[in-house]
Every structure is written in structure tokens, then in C-alpha cells.
Amino acid sequence: MSNIPQEYLSGYDFGFSAVDEMPRTESPVEPIKEDVEGINDNIVRIENKVDAITSSIKSLTTKLTSLDDEFDNVRVTTELEVKDKLVQVEKMIMPLLVNLLKNADKDYIHWPNRAPKIQEQIDKLLAVTRET
């Protein structure tokens, strides 16, 4: 150590010291073993909870898929019913409009006893649009 400058030989403490024999310490094996067993128990409980959550999610996904299919069936059925009703309404209104268009060059419409005919069409129309 003769060629090491003096400034490096003192003042630096790295937290260790030289000893003649191995210091005695208590064996940490038992506390660590108990800790590991406790951790294993916690891991098993966590795994069981994760399994339960996963099962619940799968069940919910299955139910949502079923509801989605049911919703699609109701939507398709409703669309078909609405389309059918619109066709029925069209068949009730178009003859009137076509008849009015036939004589578009005339300024006046002669329509005697129209109340019963109009009421008949109103009743038919309401039967289609307010049908439950």
C-alpha cells in the first residue's frame, strides 16, 4: 500500500469491516418459511377470486350474447311489421292521390256524399296505424 496516495487511505466508509471469523447470526430460514407459506395461502385465495371473476365474466358474456340475439330477432320482426303497415297505408292513400291527379286540369272537384267514403278510409287507416 506504499504507492497509494494518503488521501485515499482514510475517510471513505463503504459499510464493511474486516473480521477474524464469521459473525454469528440467527438462522432466518424458519421466519422465511412461515412467510412463504403465508404468501402461498394468499396466492391461492387470489387465484380463487380471479377464477370466480373469470367465471362470472364468461357467464355475463353468454347472457349478453343471448340478449343481443333476442334483440336482433325483435328488431327484425318489428322492421317487417312496420314495412308491412307502411305498404298498407300506401295502398289506402295512393288511390285518392291518383284520382285527384287524373283531373288536375279541373279547378273544382265534385264529391257528393263524401263523408261516408272518407270515414271508411279513416277507419281503415286507424286500424292499421293504431293496431296493437
Structural write-up:
By secondary structure, the chain is mainly α. The chain has one domain (28-129). Helix content is 68%, strand content 0%. It contains two helices and no strands. The chain has helices spanning 29-102, 114-129. Helix 1 (29-102) packs antiparallel against helix 2 (114-129). The chain starts with 28 loop residues before the first helix and ends with a helix. 0% of the residues are buried.
Strand content: under 5%
Work out the helicity level.
Answer: 55-70%
The DSSP helix count reads 2
Q: Spans with pLDDT under 50 lasting ≥5 residues?
A: none
Q: How many strand units?
A: 0
Order of helices and strands: HH
Give the helix/strand class.
mainly alpha
C-alpha geometry: rod-shaped
Mean pLDDT: 84
First and last CA, distance = 106 Å
Taking all Cα atoms into account, the compactness measure Rg is 46 Å
Structural domain count: 1
Q: What's the arrangement of secondary structure elements?
A:
Layout: H1 29-102, H2 114-129
Helix pairs in contact: 1-2
